[in-house]
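Q: Sequence in, structure out?
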Amino acid sequence: MTEDLLNGPSEAPASGAAPRSIVVLLHGYGSNGSDLIGFVPYWRDALPDTLFLAPDAPQACPGTAFGRQWWPLTSLAPEARAAGVRVSAPALNAFIDHHLAAHGLVEDRLALVGFSQGTMMALHVAPRRQRPIAGVVGYAGMLADPDALGEEVRSKPPILLAHGDADDVLPLTAMRQAEARLTALGFPLQTYVAAGLGHSVDAEGLALGARFLAETLASRP
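A: Exactly. Output:
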């Protein structure tokens, strides 16, 4: 592993066998990889041959002891999001390429899962990769640069978006806008709205994520 490659917690396949698929878990602003690795106990039975990787974002998050950020949130303007999501995209792509090669796997054996800013990263990186990955699960997020996606899309993996209708950090309209844009561009898309849920993930959202990943990462003939 190179010095500048992203790093963070991981969980080996529950089966004890070599990985047949990889799920990369992308945390939100101010958190770190130890947060989303907590999804694994809910998903390992559905994905026994999957290696879970939860990299820490490359930048320290100001004002936190252990928090990380994919890009600074010094401005919430749309143009700042569009520029910001590109800051860490090369590092995430290098991380993906490294682990696919290390385990002898190709893109259709890999899925991205994000929460909040991590969802923005997943929705930015996945469609811009030349070969389609198996799928994307995005919780409580949005498209960071929807206007450029039409010109920059190179592949269209299936996507599941989940969002709480009481989210006061990224309102449900953020998911609806992503849904409209992705549908218009022809992405296979599923959505789930959690009644009364704030900026979080509920049990049904986790269950839907497990089923979606199990289907998209099913063994190819």
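The beta strands are 10-11, 21-26, 50-53, 59-60, 68-69, 110-115, 135-139, 159-164, 189-194.
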